[in-house]
Write a structure and sequence with these properties.
Blueprint (H helix, E strand, L loop, with lengths): L8 H23 L24 E2 L4 E2 L1 H14 L18 H4 L2 H9 L1 H6 L3 H9 L12 H14 L28 H40 L6 H8 L5 H4 L2 H24 L17 H7 L4 H4 L14 H8 L7 H11 L20 H7 L4 H5 L16 H10 L11 H11 L14 H4 L2
Antiparallel strand pairs: 1-2
Helix pairs in contact: 1-8, 2-7, 14-15
GO molecular function, one term: metal ion binding
Protein name: Mono/diheme cytochrome c family protein
Organism: Hymenobacter luteus
Length: 449
């Protein structure tokens, strides 16, 4: 009788796993075959060839489907933080923009609004002054992309928004932060379907493996009862896998050692890079003060409490007297308000815990940014009007500051100091906006001296 040769089960398991993985990949491609728009927006230039500008007629209230779809993605990725279609957010509502201004004005405004304001364009200056001289950033978008945005805005004019929707097309109320990487309903449904499918495939794979192990053990028991097996067959049948050979192997020990060293090195570097970085820091304050209630619901201006934010190097912590301007009459029985009374009676300051703190080696001037630069509080502090307990929203790292200086146009209007500088800059750089870094805002000595 021919000798019986038992094949290792590992080959069968590997073939089975590859088969299931191939099926899962095919199903994933089938589910993801439908075109989807990136939730991070569309990079400038990505839609330049998708739709010719002449195919869009925003002034007439329309445009083809491709242009409107591209405009939707571009709006969410570039405009939704400050604009809505039918509501005023940080900037004006965009409904009717194609009727108010021609595309020959809209395109250069989006590309470099500061240059148009500096040129003295009447409508540009009017918008700039109407919205507290808040400078709109410049966007490196093509003419077709800007036209697509206007087409989408035109298609959304007058549409009612539901309780979980918003006119800016993001599903987020003005001033609120949406979840990072949020997906729309269709993509979320597809994602859930894929998760269920992968779980089912994993369960099927486990069941098959267990079944094969049981069958293998039954076959071994049957073979052990046979008497026509020679010595080699019995040796194969009775062999046991020696796990000690794995952990005693020089190669395995070397790999484990290298992985361990790399893991320790990575964690050490991450720890060193994180020294002084307190993004997300949210300490408990001695008095439960809600910015959401005061700055959000009651719309108290930041400068009412932080009185020096527009005229001093630092934004001061408000004194108890400022609190008493209102709370000497309002909610006087509140336990939290009584803490303010006790501090005043004892002539002791309230021990607020500082949240935003730069190292001594870095110079920062609040008034230079808020008064001269016209920077809004939310630019650095995030949606402060939605915070019950304030936390550090931005990383406040050197790289974060430098990027802002590179991207933020400098407000030069009405300041003769910049006239010649702007002319020289425009002559050598063309359409590139005159940013803070153009005026030396990234030089080391600006912040370190």
């Amino acid at each position: 009788m021919n000798s019986i040769r038992l094949r290792p089960l590992s080959r069968l398991f590997l073939a089975l796993f590859l088969t299931v993985a191939t099926i899962g990949e095919s199903l994933a491609q089938a589910v993801g075959a439908a075109p989807a728009v990136s939730k991070e927006g569309v990079a400038p230039g990505a839609t330049a060839a998708a739709t010719p500008a002449t195919a869009v007629a925003p002034a007439a209230g329309g445009g083809d489907a491709a242009a409107i779809a591209a405009g939707d993605a571009l709006f969410k990725g570039n405009c939704a933080q400050c604009h809505a279609v039918n509501d005023v957010v940080v900037g004006p509502a965009l409904a009717g923009i194609a009727k108010r201004r021609p595309m020959s004005w809209i395109i250069p405004w989006v590309k470099n609004s500061s240059k148009m304001v500096a040129s003295g364009d009447e409508y540009s200056v009017k918008i700039f002054n109407q919205y507290s001289k808040q400078q709109m950033p410049s966007f490196q978008l093509s003419d077709q992309e800007i036209t697509s945005i206007v087409a989408w805005v035109t298609s959304q004019e007058g549409k009612a928004t539901g309780p979980n929707d918003n006119a800016n097309g993001t599903g987020i109320k003005p001033g609120e932060q949406g979840p990072a990487g949020g997906a729309d309903t269709a993509d979320a449904g597809a994602g859930k379907y894929m998760n269920v499918l992968l779980i089912v495939l994993v369960v099927v794979l486990i069941v098959l493996i267990v079944t094969l192990v049981i069958i293998a053990n039954i076959m071994k028991d049957v073979l052990r009862g046979r008497k026509d097996l020679d010595g080699r067959d019995r040796e194969v049948l009775e062999q046991r896998f020696d796990f000690s050979k794995i952990y005693k192997s020089t190669a395995v020990r070397t790999i484990v050692g290298v992985v361990f060293v790399l893991a320790v090195l990575y964690e050490s570097i991450q720890g060193a890079m994180g020294v002084g970085l307190q993004q997300g820091y949210q300490p408990t304050q001695p008095i439960a003060f809600s910015h959401k209630l005061h700055a959000g619901e009651h719309q108290i201006n930041c400068a009412y409490c932080h009185t020096s934010v527009y005229k001093s190097k630092s934004a001061n912590i408000p004194s108890a007297n400022i609190c008493m301007n209102c709370h000497s009459q309002i909610k006087t029985e509140s336990p939290e308000i009584k803490k303010i009374y006790r501090a005043i009676e004892r002539k002791q300051p309230i021990q607020w815990v500082r949240i935003h703190n730069l190292p001594d080696l870095a110079y920062f001037n609040h008034s230079q940014h808020t008064q001269v630069g016209g920077i809004e509080c939310q630019t650095c502090h995030g949606p402060i009007q939605n915070m019950d307990v304030v936390y550090q929203y931005s990383p406040l790292t050197m790289g974060w500051c430098i990027n802002c200086h590179r991207e933020t146009p400098l407000n030069t209007k009405g300041n003769g100091y910049y006239d010649n500088l702007v002319k020289l800059h425009d002559k050598s750089n063309g359409a590139v906006p005159f940013t803070v870094s153009s005026n030396g805002g990234t030089e080391c000595s600006k912040c370190h001296y």
